[in-house]
Structures are given as structure tokens and as C-alpha cells.
């Protein structure tokens, strides 16, 4: 009975892990239909998860993995150090990158 409980607990952790990947890494559908395409997309998602978890631990961040991923996805092409992105989120966005869109309401 103890072995079955341990197997169930391990299986449940795997289920939660894939649920997190589907929710936070946004794997809603696969880009390809071949086995290689599906495996590649899953391995990329797992790699991103592990890298973000390592960065969270290394920088001792209080933000959730989801929040860190959101910050990174918005600033993926910015030349801003990672630690600055996750610690200085309240800075004025307009001073960094002026908005070129006209205001509809003043």
C-alpha cells in the first residue's frame, strides 16, 4: 500500500507539472504533428521552465515563475539586465521607450 501511495504521489506531481506547463508556458496546441515536433516543443517548454526556476532561485526572487515569464516575454528583445527587469518594474515606461501611439482620451 505504501508503494502504491508513493507511485500515486509521483504521478500527481507529474500531472501538476504538465498542468503548469499548459497554463503558464502556453502550450495550447502543437506547431507540428510529427513525434519530433511535439517532443521538441515539450523539451523547449521544460527547458524554459528549468531556466526560469534556476534564475528565480539564483537571484532569490519573490515573484512567481509565471510573473517572471510574463516579464521576460514582454522584454525579450530589450537590452536590459535580467535582475533590473524583475526588480525595477515600477519605472516609467514612457521614459524608456516613448509611446508612438496617439492618445484617444486625455
Automatic annotation (TrEMBL):
User: A biological process (GO) annotation for this entry?
Assistant: DNA transposition
Q: Can you name one GO molecular function term for this protein?
A: transposase activity
Transposase IS4-like domain segment(s):
2-51
What is the protein name stated in its UniProt record? Transposase DDE domain-containing protein
State the organism of origin: Desulfofustis glycolicus DSM 9705
Amino acid at each position: 500500500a505504501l508503494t502504491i501511495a508513493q507511485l500515486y504521489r509521483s504521478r500527481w506531481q507529474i500531472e501538476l507539472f504538465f498542468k503548469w506547463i499548459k497554463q503558464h508556458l502556453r502550450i495550447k496546441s502543437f506547431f507540428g504533428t510529427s513525434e519530433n515536433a511535439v517532443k521538441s516543443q515539450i523539451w523547449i517548454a521544460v527547458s524554459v521552465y528549468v531556466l526560469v526556476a534556476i534564475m528565480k532561485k539564483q537571484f532569490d526572487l519573490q515573484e512567481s515563475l509565471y510573473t517572471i515569464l510574463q516579464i521576460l516575454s514582454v522584454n525579450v528583445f530589450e537590452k536590459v539586465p535580467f535582475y533590473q527587469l524583475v526588480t525595477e518594474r515600477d519605472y516609467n515606461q514612457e521614459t524608456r521607450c516613448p509611446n508612438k501611439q496617439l492618445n484617444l482620451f486625455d
